[in-house]
Amino acid sequence: MTKNDQHDLPVNPDLVLIGQALKIISGKWRLYIILLVGDETRRYSELNESLPAISEKVLAGELKALVALGVLDRKVYAEIPPRVEYTLTSKGRLTLPILKQILEIGRIFNY
Amino acid sequence: MTKNDQHDLPVNPDLVLIGQALKIISGKWRLYIILLVGDETRRYSELNESLPAISEKVLAGELKALVALGVLDRKVYAEIPPRVEYTLTSKGRLTLPILKQILEIGRIFNY
Question: What is the 3-state composition of chain A as percent helix, strand, coil, each rounded to the nearest 5?
Fold first, then answer.
């Protein structure tokens, strides 16, 4: 039972929700970084090594944005050298299955 | 059984598939237009009326891009005035359930 079934007039999708979702996945790297972290705890150095194609400045900016959006948690350990680790937040984990499916869209249109 | 289960090193997501998927959903309007067409046949005039916030030029450009990407089918009927109708292609229809779920990402981060 949905409010919108079998309507003839177009039902406008919620632009606020679309905008919010696109903030998380837009840009070439955000979705990639989220999928790379996945269910694991990833050190900054690991992420940096896994992303040779982007500069450290871009990576740092994207990580900062994903932390600000509430997708990633960042923990800094006061070691020498300092250790910085990223994990998905609980909201980030909730979206992971959907984000993985976005690859499926690419697969459908790639072949 | 997947190739990547229980790995310790990050498994790089497929950038080509991510890029392909983002072409379909990126920008403020593509996802919106696809969801607006949905399972229906939509006249250009209907879409235009449902999207008062974007100019006709932007709408025409986005529709053209979605046709070129293979997401939308465009049919022109030689009537007076000419009738132009859009439907999702079969590939577009295949992605519709995933695209609807993207709204869920917005919902998760909106609250």
Answer: 55, 15, 35
pLDDT in tens, A26-40: 877 899 999 999 999
Please name the residues between 24 and 53 in chain A that touch chain B, using a CB distance below 8 Å. 24-26, 28, 31-32, 35-38, 40, 42, 46-47, 50, 53
Q: Give the best residue of A26, A72, A99, A108 to mutate against chain B (max B CB count within 10 A).
A: A108
Class of the CATH-defined domain B15-110: mainly alpha
Q: What is the ipTM of this complex?
A: 0.78
Task: Please state, in angstroms and rounded to a whole number, the distance separating the CA atoms of residues B15 and B20.
Answer: 8
Distance CA B74, CA B66 (A): 10
Q: Exposed, middle or buried by CB within 10 Å (0-12, 13-18, 19+), for A95?
A: buried
Per residue in B19-34, pLDDT (tens digit) is: 889 989 887 789 999 9
For chain B, the structural domain boundaries read 15-110
